[in-house]
Amino acid sequence: MKKRIIITTLVMIGIHFVLTISSVVIAFGSGTEAFDNPNYEPSVIERVAVQLSGILMQPGMSLWTPWMSKNMPNVVEWGLCVINSLLWGIVLAFVLNVPALVKGKRSDNNGVHSIF
């Protein structure tokens, strides 16, 4: 069971990290067109990317302050991004494996129904 959770966690970390970086790049890249055209209307893809990046970057984005942007090296920001993906990966792995965890605990406790 531990191996399954570890593999699921690593896969979720990778998916989260790629989705986060992709949505930020799409949102930023699409938004640069607004500088050239004052009548620019964002596309559906750009609006989705902006919302998705805002969601996927939490809770790490809440911890990063303007002071940190000026006074901390970029490696700290990237470290926070990786830790954020790690947190999302762990949570998603446990959520995806809850049925197997509950089923495994029930069979281990000889009929006692407990998640812990």
Brief summary:
With 116 residues, this protein is mostly helical. Helix content is 78%, strand content 0%.
Verbal overview:
- The protein has helices spanning 2-31, 33-36, 44-56, 60-63, 66-71, 74-96, 98-108.
- By secondary structure, it is an all-alpha fold.
- The chain has one domain (2-108).
- The longest helix has 30 residues, at 2-31.
- It is globular.
- The mean pLDDT is 83.
Question: What's the layout of helices and strands?
Answer:
Blueprint lengths: L1 H30 L1 H4 L7 H13 L3 H4 L2 H6 L2 H23 L1 H11 L8
Helix pairs in contact: 1-3, 1-6
Order of helices and strands: HHHHHHH
Number of helical stretches of at least 4 residues: 7
Helix content: over 70%
Q: Could you tell me the radius of gyration in angstroms? A: 20 Å
Q: What is the domain total for the residues?
A: 1
Structural class: mainly alpha
Number of DSSP strand runs: 0
Give the mean pLDDT: 83
Query: Any low-confidence stretches, pLDDT <50, length ≥5?
Result: none
Please give the alpha-carbon distance between the first and last residues.
15 Å
Primary descriptors:
7 helices, mainly alpha, 116 residues, single chain
